[in-house]
Amino acid sequence: MSDQHSTHGAHGFETLAIHAGQEADPQTGAVVTPIYQVSTFKQDGVGGLRGGYEYSRSANPTRTALEENLAALDGGRRGLAFASGLAAEDTLLRTVTKPGDHIVIPNDAYGGTFRLFSKVLSRWGVEWSVADTHHAEQVRAAIRPNTKVVWVETPSNPLLGIADISALAHIAHEAGAILVVDNTFASPYLQQPLALGADVVVYSTTKYMGGHSDVVGGALVTDDAALGEELAYHQNAIGGVAGPFDAWLVMRGIKTLGVRMDRHSSNAARVAEFLQSHPKVAQVLYPGLPEHPGHEIAAKQMRAFGGMVSFRHKDGEEAAVQVCNRARLFTLGESLGGVESLIEHPGRMTHASAAGSALEVPADLVRLSVGIESIDDLLADLSEALK
Ligand code: P1T
């Protein structure tokens, strides 16, 4: 496939979100990329491919449109779309590591990502160790001669920790390793890791990119053309690709990413402020709060602070679980980043697989994915649930 560097380079983010990779259909003029729900493509004589397409695991026009869009949004040369965030992570890790290599992983990350390192990759002889990625010097200290990857989530899931992407890129590169940033919580609208020195950006597109809780997907973006080729090779060789309809849903979600993220961020700021003054709340974790330890770095590297807010309940684990059970408008469920607000108990739900590890989360923690409903309704629901 051709180099994906965008011809829309001069355009703003919202314009790219709607147009990059998506010309009107040359045959019909359809302004939206069609769903090419097809597994194989007719060849005009053996090897005579029309437009380079032969089999939809290797490439599919709907997925290509999304992949070009993803590359443009992060300012990278190559975007790749997968069946889930974990499929993207797995493909990335099996492309850039081999047995005997070492990875520095964050002390706060999605439980499934931790499970991939600790239960799956470790069986193939890839070593990992945990560092507090919110303190760059601790990452430097964790690096070994065989370190190939420094992995970071910022903001992190579920504790909303902030890592300094530029500082970590410097440390990783000095050691001959690559920096991978899971940008799922921020989205490319709020944060551009490649411009800050990261080598690969990872997404669960299930979240803000899709934005409507109706699709599971993942993505990788890099500006390194050679690494992009390697990743594309493994995407096809391993096979965890996004299907055409899923690719189309993510593409549709991305068109409104900017306006949604603005509203997620302003609603979340109001929720954080409300929780801070609530007598049942021991601590609010939100990078938009001036007292958050990562606030200054977040303000430097993010356009706004996003829609995720976590808090610790003063009365402990059972009380935290009860808030989750009592909320109504905040729907009790895993996942995040959709237009509708969600609430969950990370210790028993999304991060149960981190129990007993360095990534275990506090038992009194509640995580909110603040949606774009009317803010007064959201605050009333939380107020009722906390009673
Ligand atoms: O669920 P999947 O699309 O495979 O993406 C995995 C993933 C990767 N990175 C981050 C930061 C994530 O939050 C996730 C998935 N997270 C949830 C399902 C959750 O509720 O936290």
Automatic annotation (TrEMBL):
SUPFAM superfamilies, per database record: PLP-dependent transferases
| UniProt xrefs under InterPro entries | Cys/Met-Metab_PyrdxlP-dep_enz, Cys_met_metab_PP, PyrdxlP-dep_Trfase, PyrdxlP-dep_Trfase_major, PyrdxlP-dep_Trfase_small
Q: Which Pfam families match?
A: Cys_Met_Meta_PP (PF01053)
Can you name this protein?
Cystathionine gamma-synthase
| EC main group | transferase
Q: Which family does it belong to?
A: Belongs to the trans-sulfuration enzymes family.
GO: which molecular function terms? cystathionine gamma-synthase activity
Which source organism does the UniProt entry give?
Streptacidiphilus monticola
Q: What is its EC number?
A: 2.5.1.48
* Domain of life from the UniProt record: Bacteria
Task: Name the keywords, alphabetized.
Answer: Pyridoxal phosphate, Transferase
PROSITE patterns per the UniProt record, alphabetical: CYS_MET_METAB_PP
Cofactor(s) required for function per UniProt? pyridoxal 5'-phosphate
